[in-house]
Predict the 3D structure of the following.
Amino acid sequence: MKQLTFTLVLMLIFINTQAQDYWVQKSNPLNVTRNNAAAFSIGNYGYMGLGIDDVTGYCSDLWQYNPADNTWTQKQDFPSGARTGAFGFSIAGKGYMGTGSNTTPGSYAYTVTITDINGCTATAAKTITVSDIRCGKDFDKVAVCMIPQGNPHNMKATCINGADVADHLRKGSYLGDCNTGSYHTAATSGTLQGSINEPAETSPKDLLIYPNPNHGSFILQVNNAKGLHMDIRVIDQNGKIITTRNCSSAKGVQSLQVDLGPVSKGVYTIQAITGNGITTTKMIVY
């Protein structure tokens, strides 16, 4: 088994001469940064492909390197689709690539059927919406839309480290681009690990909706016990902000009449955002 590892730094290809312990730069197959590519060798040829770059995104291409004339030749694309983080190796003159991941943005439908010990079954379907919120030159940061307290219309997009995400979300920011609406909000602790938990449900006495279910028109009752400035958001099942309302900072219970207009049926998230955090409840539109 042979495996050839390429060092990829801004797509500069180097070969190490171990006998004299120095590096010699070789030709580059591409003019853009390629991250998490896979590589292998067959005979005297080296092969590199897949990965992710800042132009194409997820890549499915494959390139052959000929050390005799220091050239790269593009070969047939990987047939199972673009991906990053795959592995490559060769056995008996054949090259293999596999595994990896591809979180291409879009909606994906899943159906789960459960059968109990008595043979009774239940089936549930769920559509998962994948949104790419990576940013930065190396796609190693997270896109966040910052919303200033008391001025929700003055939103600002920024690119931050994963370790700072939880703090931004606690302050009312949301994940993703300000122009496309929230993908998901969460007040979580620690660093971003690839999945975001929804905010914890709160007591009905803090945030009441009636009627619930409704047709998109409802009364929202908020208990502003500490008299803090409060912003109200209604978020649909795709994570998009439908409307934002401001509440008075007066102490006590406040009621808001909200009419969403023509909206899709489904489960909506209602958030009350203050400097102390986010209060969340659910609402059904039918």
